[in-house]
Amino acid sequence: MIELNPDRLSIFNYAHLPSRVPGQAKIKEEQLPKPETKLTILQKTIETLGDAGYKFIGMDHFAKPYDELAIAQEKGVLHRNFQGYTTQEECDLLGLGVSSISLLGDTYAQNEKISKPIML
């Protein structure tokens, strides 16, 4: 990934949810890394990406120093919403499509997670 040199990276922890993702039931809990191991992986990731010129924005986000997220972080004006880090203060977000999430005012809504034919 470092060789591709993207401006931003989001590196998410594996979420083991076999009740929602039936295929994950094949993976046994004892096969998953322990919390200490996961922390070590995160620390190594922060170190490796830092050496490659990325700033650790927070949680699971990294950006090049010239990226607007890194600049906002440096200035102390970085924000976070349910979708991740942003340079914008609170604003309405309209989600379109299966399982999309919207935030309008102080109300959250999520579309159904099952695709149905749309009648036009």
TrEMBL record:
InterPro entries assigned to the protein according to its UniProt record, in alphabetical order: rSAM_sf (IPR058240)
Superkingdom in the source lineage: Bacteria
Alphabetized GO MF terms: oxidoreductase activity
Oxidoreductase is among the record's keywords: yes
Protein name per Swiss-Prot or TrEMBL: Oxygen-independent coproporphyrinogen-III oxidase
EC number per UniProt: 1.3.99.22
UniProt keywords, alphabetically: Oxidoreductase
Enzyme class: oxidoreductase
